[in-house]
Amino acid sequence: MSLCPLCRSMEESVNHVFWECTFIKCVLEGAGIDGLFSSMEQNWDKWIANLFLSMQKEQCKRLVITFWAVWHHRNEVYHQGEKQCATRLISFIKAFYTKNNQLKLVSKTGVRQNEGAWTPPRTNMAKGNFDATYNSHMMSSVSRIIFRDFEGYILVACTYPNTFVIDATTAEAKAYLQTVTVAEELGFRNLVIEGDSLTVIKKSKHLKRINQILV
């Protein structure tokens, strides 16, 4: 039997991690979505499908962010033993949700046009773009990474939450290093990396590990 790494009191299962675990119930309540759940009498697949069909768009987005944060935290606890208190995880979820809405609003008004300014790399090359959202009050950040080929097709896209981040420059540096790590893991060798932080990119030229995979 494998115990849940979050509550250490019951056997771990998909149902338990996202619904039955006492730690998760506290997080769901704090995130304001526990009242949306009915009794899980069906299997997981049918239950989650029916749940999304019954919810409004913003409720679905909040639930996805919460489940993503919960699963990432579960993996951190399982692999690294780094458990956060429920209050801290709830604050991260709310901050990420708010920031996501703010970025969406800015994009609609045309102030932020990073996607429109994207330029493709040379033929048979991949291009990695990264940026970071920094929360100074929580000393945390979220790295956003996307790789495209020379035709603009998305090869991979991912996000990484980070804790104990001292400033925005450090957040960008973490995002840059995580971009390089993803590139290494996926075997990219003919690669260009682009980000908003010129300071981080200039300093990276002195790092042998990064130069080995950059053109």
Automatic annotation (TrEMBL):
Source organism of the structure: Gossypium stocksii
Name the record gives this protein: RNase H type-1 domain-containing protein
Example GO molecular function: RNA-DNA hybrid ribonuclease activity
Xref: InterPro entries: RNase_H-like_EbsB-rel, RNaseH_domain
Domain RNase H type-1: 129-210
Top-rank taxon: Eukaryota
Any matching Pfam family: RVT_3
